[in-house]
Amino acid sequence: SRRLKDKVCYNYCMSYINVYIEHNSLALNTTFTYACDQKVEVGCRVRVPFGAQDLIGFVESVDVLPKVKNIKSVLEVLDTKPLLNEELMTLAHTISQNYVCSVISVLKTMLPPALRPSSIEHKIVYEDWAVLNDETVALTPKQKEAFASIRDQLPMKASILRKKISLSRPLFEKGVLSLEKRVKESVVPMEEIEDSSFVLTEEQQAAIENIEKGKNTVYLLHGVTGSGKTEVFLQLAKKVLSEGKQVLFLVPEIGLTPMMIQRVKARFQTKIAIYHSSLNAQEKYEQYQLVKENKVSIVVGTRSSVFMPFSNLGLILMDEEHDSSYKQDSMPRYHTRDIVMERAKFHHCKVVLSSATPSLDSYARAYKGVYQLVTLTKRISLQMPKIHLVDMKTEQVENGLSFSLINAIQQALAKHQQVILLLNRRGYLPVVKCTQCEETFTCPDCGIALTYHKKEDLLMCHCCGRVFYFDHTCPKCHSHSFYRLGMGTEKLEENLQNMFPKAYIVRMDADSTRKKNAHAKLLKEFEEKGDILVGTQMVAKGLDYQRVSVVGILQADASLARIDYQSAETAYSMLEQASGRCGRGQIEGNVYIQTFEPDHYVMRSVIQHDYFSFFSKEMKYRHLGMYPPYVYLCTVIYQDKKEENALQTAQEAKAYLSDLKVLGPISISMRQQKARVRLVIKSKDKELLTQRVWQLVHHHMRLKTTVKQDINMYPFGLEE
Ligand code: ADP
Ligand code: ZN
Ligand code: ZN
């Protein structure tokens, strides 16, 4: 390696590189200059000294002459070739610009952990492989024999080689073989299933034809639950693959759709990469390389796979496009749909968004003709489930379940049919309150009520995840008696087991699915022997089981109560999606929605499965309140130990943005013991909004404010 270093120095004279570095105190998108005497290109990572630290940076540009004095030298160049091609580098800058965030934060999101310009190292495991180096070296007869026995198997793992021949050492010493580091391969386990092929329905056929022959770039496939949207996707993909192009198939959460992934896999076999958050760094790296090296032509994955290094993308499919997991809720707060449009523009390919409950943003665009609307109105099973609104103001209730629902469960169980119950609250008791002094246990970091978890016998904050020991004594008055108000999924499961002792109950929520592949295991358990599946909103998504005849939704109003302009939309889609889990086969489906507001327009639309009536109503409210998609929106959250500091900074910001419509500041829940204050900024002009928010950021910098700010742009307005 000494020789190699001399050679590099000889070949490459000094260059001056400008580097993005990840560091909290750094101004957005400032670069730092270093001298470099090795070969280096834009898009490579370098290790550089920064203050007393060694940090990993990302090369933004390379100059021949230095622009500043007192330049430090690069410690190490980590990549021989740029990590991102031009398309992705440009995309990184676009995202930084549009979402008002640093380029380095975007790069960290785009790249798999092992390739990130990050201060934390994600180790890739390497293995030694024996490769042929020089065959002409003279060997002893014994060595020759040994070499001949493995000659055809090269390159091979060094560990295997050692097992096969005891005389391997001299082969390396004489230089016949040499060692090479290769990434250790890990296989993502996947159950094999058979590919079922159907005769397409007329509606499916028409949808495929409309999309294939259409002149538009973007299509919104609006199909009721169980109308066979996945099959439409698979057929479209097949055609594009046969033309030698690549397909990106986006799904919201892989864990919830193991069957769907298997269907894609069964259809396209080896040509597929799968990319999602529960892969480890090693696995992600491998899947990423498969795409980069053009070894696969279809990628199925969650939101981060929108950044895969495609070279020849022919189609982007986005399943359940309304799902909130497509928006990243940490920096950079991008929306996958937005990135999809950028990539489609670059690759000149079509985009198909699909959902039974499209986001208002997408449907509004389709309604205006910006996207082409394609609809599937009929279920494959032909019957839509019947919705029963259970008025909790008048209905008799036991253990949180209405008599109508209890009845329906009993009947379903008697007929060996399955039941799905949705309660969007995990844990046992959502609030723990002393009966003597009325003290409520709250999280000191977030200020919200702690949830009691019975199995672990502890209190947990569902906001920050912190857990607290609970000795069943009130810290204030030492009483041992607590109210038993409310119910989470853990308690519901216990209640159900008492009411239906013979039923096999499976619970699926964030607590029961923490381990890797837990989703898939629980779903399999339910499919094979389960009677009742209890869970949070995750049971509303995508499940396709033919024997489910009853769906019960408890506390259906909970999501309507949120103070958030999207709460009705979220509630509608959750109710409609959950309803869609039953009546998918031969048996009819019945849905029981327990509500205190049966006359709410969300409930009225769900009862009719009438998306359009919901859409029209909700658009009116959005118009009245001036919310997306009628305007572009940005929220800025100011966070500080002292609330008055956060408030003051927010007030200054509001004054600075006096030309825009700004709501707030209002105080919202704490995080990490810090007070938070929010501003909402609205504008019909997206360019102006982005420009002004950037100016605001620079304004804060000039004032050297220490209050932390968190910017969240909502990119979906209706272009006039
Ligand atoms: P969606 O995504 O619209 O809810 P799916 O694509 O999951 O619907 O399809 C619902 C069910 O119908 C699946 O079990 C699927 O295998 C089946 N299916 C899809 N298309 C057909 C068809 N043409 N004939 C028969 N069954 C079909
Ligand atoms: Zn007390
Ligand atoms: Zn907390």
Automatic annotation (TrEMBL):
GO terms for cellular component: primosome complex. Its EC number is 5.6.2.4. Residues 210-376 form the Helicase ATP-binding domain. It comes from the Bacteria. It catalyses: Couples ATP hydrolysis with the unwinding of duplex DNA by translocating in the 3'-5' direction; ATP + H2O = ADP + phosphate + H(+). It is an enzyme of class 5 (isomerase). Binds 2 zinc ions per subunit. GO terms for molecular function: 3'-5' DNA helicase activity; ATP binding; ATP hydrolysis activity; DNA binding; zinc ion binding. The keyword Transferase does not apply. Keywords: ATP-binding, DNA replication, DNA-binding, Helicase, Hydrolase, Isomerase, Metal-binding, Nucleotide-binding, Primosome, Zinc. PROSITE patterns: HELICASE_ATP_BIND_1. CDD domains: DEXHc_priA (cd17929). InterPro entries: DEAD/DEAH_box_helicase_dom, Helicase_ATP-bd, Helicase_C-like, P-loop_NTPase, PriA, PriA_3primeBD, PriA_3primeBD_sf, PriA_C. Zn(2+) 1 binds at C434, C437, C474, C477. Its cofactor is Zn(2+). One of its GO terms (biological process) is DNA replication initiation. Zn(2+) 2 binds at C443, C446, C461, C464. It holds the Pfam family Helicase_C. Belongs to the helicase family. PriA subfamily. Initiates the restart of stalled replication forks, which reloads the replicative helicase on sites other than the origin of replication. Recognizes and binds to abandoned replication forks and remodels them to uncover a helicase loading site. Promotes assembly of the primosome at these replication forks. Component of the replication restart primosome. This is Replication restart protein PriA.
